[in-house]
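Practice problem: predict the structure.
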Amino acid sequence: MRVLLPALLSGVLFLCASQAFAEGVDPDTGRDIFFKHCKACHGVKGDGKTFAANVLNPPPKNFTSEKSRQELTEERMIRSVSEGRKGTAMMPWKSRLTPPEIRAVVDYIRKKLMNL
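Answer:
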């Protein structure tokens, strides 16, 4: 049993790492995508305090607020990035980003900007 458990855990870790590399997304991808496509509206810190916020109605989402932390599930964020948000300037990204890239940028926002 002592030999089987480490071997099993090693296999699981290998499969997870292989899947991430097979999808072509490295750990920095989410940050890079955010800085390339999202920061103009959402800001470097994700707080929505940008020039764009002055001209957009409604303003871009402030990911750093407690309200956002409570309301924005991972699934909702993936759907919003993929499909866009009606009645806002948030456009759909599913034709420009792959599903793994969308997940990477959502993971970056949740972990680094929302502290979840």
